[in-house]
Design a protein that fits this description.
The protein is mainly alpha-helical and about 80 residues long. It contains four helices and no strands. It is globular. The N and C termini lie far apart (about 40 Å). The mean pLDDT is about 90.
Length: about 80
């Protein structure tokens, strides 16, 4: 298994997509912001040089938070910020 943080980030984003049904791009953007990056592009650039154990705990926490938020918002069909 690859040990860079970007691969772990992508795996977490795919799990968020699978569990909630949101589009992958939406999961990636929200996950990026939960990690305090401006967007997925910035997250991708910075995570590429990090090891997964440097961000694992933060990603797991962000994953739980996002799943809860997406389900709470009713975004199970993949639409963005439906109220």
């Amino acid at each position: 298994m690859n040990d860079n943080a970007l691969e772990l980030f992508k795996a977490v984003a795919r799990r968020v997509r699978r569990i909630t049904g949101v589009q992958l791009a939406n999961a990636q953007e929200h996950l990026s912001k939960a990690l305090r990056y401006q967007n997925f592009h910035e997250a991708r650039k910075r995570l590429l040089d990090q090891r997964d154990n440097q961000v694992r705990a933060e990603l797991e926490s962000a994953e739980k938070f996002l799943i809860h938020q997406f389900k709470r918002a009713g975004e199970l069909d993949g639409s963005a910020h439906r109220t």
